[in-house]
């Protein structure tokens, strides 16, 4: 029996012919029996009927137009000044010697003292100059101390002050001057000093414990505490009276002599000018002379310390010393990330490098793209010429 051979091509072309009456191959409406939705078509017909809606409909919000704002200015209402009786005074704040208006540290001390004093309690500010804004910063009374930066004079004044105004708590800044005075007072009165407080609030005081990653908390405010700088937010509640009280305090007897350290003798972390050598330096005697002549503390990259050309203590970087210098002069240092971490806090960076594309050149504000040897020789010559 003869079988007809199928021609798939012909069959397909017959299906596609509209006149053939055959259904299209992928006509799903026919398959399910349900009319198929056309979302595009629906959206188009909706858009004709409805007013178009903005995606972010700001018309619902109430805004003051510029003209309305001009027409009705917001009344400037000053909160009433809070006054307290002498009997309500609770906290004595002794600030560091200084000049001009209150420093951020002074304000942080006053903000903390206000929290410790409570809403009904008063704060006495002891400061060595007249300041305008102590009331708004939280002081109820102000005592002007005799001007003296000598630790012994400041201690005698603080003793007299405490005797004249025996308040429950004393607060000082955890700074070299404030920390020293706080410790002297604590020793004199036999109080336990709660030093370096970082948080103060309704739940008490918190300070970190040195060398351990734990905090020490204390619910009760102690007789004396020192406050760590830049940890406590400033206050913004009603201003206080800020009335000046005159007391008979001992006058300063000792003069303070300020001794400047020898140029370049400061430790790396404290120095404001560091001259550093990298692997691009070969003449380390010349490098040390340049650093000394410029008055900078000598530093080095890790490669140089590893090779023994500079002591390990001179290493700058993530695994060395992190600097806070005003100026960093990098001689022949590439600027590896670990080194750059150590100079992130430096204000100005000067690079001397033969490679224009070195990361240190990119980091620097001023770069000398040259061999460091003749640059160091020229620097030494110029520095020696300028020296008196
Ligand atoms: C875990 C870890 C921690 C690290 N910690 C530190 C760290 O704390 N501090 C640190 O410094 N490094 C650290 N390093 C090493 C760091 O990654 C780099 O290897 C190192 O900083 C490179 O030192 P360098 O720039 O002096 O040397 P190089 O990378 O060799 O760069 C030398 C530079 O000198 C330039 N140069 C060459 N010849 C001259 C010339 N005649 N005149 C001028 N320029 C020239 C070159 O162009 C180059 O830019 C650490 C690495 C690791 C893995």
Outline the fold blueprint.
Elements: H1 8-16, H2 28-32, H3 39-49, H4 66-71, E1 89-94, H5 104-117, E2 122-127, H6 134-137, E3 141-144, H7 151-164, E4 169-173, H8 176-189, E5 194-197, E6 199-201, E7 204-208, E8 215-218, E9 224-227, E10 243-245, E11 273-277, H9 284-294, E12 297-300, H10 302-306, E13 327-331, H11 337-342, E14 348-353, H12 359-363, E15 366-369, H13 372-386
Parallel strand pairs: 1-2, 1-4, 2-3, 3-10, 4-9, 5-9, 11-12, 11-13, 13-14, 14-15
Antiparallel strand pairs: 6-7, 7-8
Helix pairs in contact: 7-8, 9-13
The protein binds flavin-adenine dinucleotide.
List keywords for this structure.
388 residues; alpha/beta; Rossmann fold; five-stranded parallel sheet; 18% strand; binds flavin-adenine dinucleotide; flavin adenine dinucleotide binding; electron transfer activity
Provide structural commentary.
With 388 residues, the protein is an alpha/beta fold. The protein folds into two domains: 86-245, Rossmann fold; 273-386, Rossmann fold (3-Layer(aba) Sandwich). 31% of the residues lie in helices and 18% in strands. It is built from 13 helices and 15 strands. The chain has helices at residues 8-16, 28-32, 39-49, 66-71, 104-117, 134-137, 151-164, 176-189, 284-294, 302-306, 337-342, 359-363, 372-386, and strands at residues 89-94, 122-127, 141-144, 169-173, 194-197, 199-201, 204-208, 215-218, 224-227, 243-245, 273-277, 297-300, 327-331, 348-353, 366-369. The strands form three sheets. The chain has a seven-stranded parallel β-sheet, sandwiched between helices. Strands 12-11-13-14-15 form a five-stranded parallel β-sheet. Strand 2, helix 6 and strand 3 form a beta-alpha-beta unit. Helix 7 packs across helix 8 (176-189). The termini are far apart. Mean pLDDT is 86; it is low at 60-69. Flavin-adenine dinucleotide binds next to helix 10, helix 11 and strand 14. Flavin-adenine dinucleotide binds at residues 278-280, 301-304, 315-320, 332-334, 336, 338-339, 342, 352-355, 358, 371-372.
């Amino acid at each position: 029996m003869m079988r007809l051979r199928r021609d798939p091509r012909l069959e397909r072309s017959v299906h596609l012919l509209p006149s053939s009456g055959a259904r299209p191959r992928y006509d799903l409406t026919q398959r399910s029996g349900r009319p198929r939705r056309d979302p595009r078509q629906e959206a188009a017909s909706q858009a004709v009927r409805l007013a178009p809606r903005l995606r972010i409909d700001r018309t619902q919000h109430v805004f003051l137009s510029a003209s309305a704002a001009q027409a009705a200015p917001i009344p400037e209402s000053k909160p009433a000044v809070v006054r307290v009786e002498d009997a309500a005074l609770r906290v004595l704040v002794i600030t560091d010697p200084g000049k001009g208006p209150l420093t951020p540290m002074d304000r942080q001390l006053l903000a903390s003292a206000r929290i410790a004093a409570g809403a009904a309690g008063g704060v006495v500010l002891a400061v060595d100059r007249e300041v305008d804004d102590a009331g708004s910063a939280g002081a109820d009374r102000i005592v002007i101390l005799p001007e003296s930066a000598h630790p012994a004079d400041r201690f005698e004044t603080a003793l007299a002050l405490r005797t004249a105004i025996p308040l429950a708590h004393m607060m000082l800044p955890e700074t070299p001057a404030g920390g020293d005075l706080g410790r002297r007072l604590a020793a004199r009165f036999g109080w336990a000093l709660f030093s370096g407080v970082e948080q103060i609030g309704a739940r008490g005081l918190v300070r970190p414990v040195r060398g351990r990653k734990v905090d020490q908390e204390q619910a009760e405010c102690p007789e004396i505490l020192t406050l760590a700088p830049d940890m406590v937010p400033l206050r913004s509640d009603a201003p206080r009276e800020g009335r000046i009280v005159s007391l008979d305090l001992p006058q300063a007897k000792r003069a303070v002599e300020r001794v400047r350290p020898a140029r370049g003798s400061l430790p790396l972390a404290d120095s404001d000018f560091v001259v550093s050598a990298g692997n691009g330096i070969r003449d380390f005697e010349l490098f040390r002379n340049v650093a000394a002549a410029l008055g900078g503390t000598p530093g080095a990259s890790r490669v140089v310390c590893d090779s023994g050309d500079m002591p390990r203590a001179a290493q700058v970087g993530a695994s060395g010393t992190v600097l806070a210098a005003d100026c960093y002069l990098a001689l022949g240092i590439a600027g590896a990330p670990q080194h750059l971490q150590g100079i992130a806090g430096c204000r100005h960076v000067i690079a001397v490098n033969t490679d224009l594309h070195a990361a240190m050149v990119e980091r620097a504000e001023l770069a000398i793209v040259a061999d460091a040897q003749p640059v160091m020789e020229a620097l030494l010559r110029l520095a020696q010429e300028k020296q008196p």
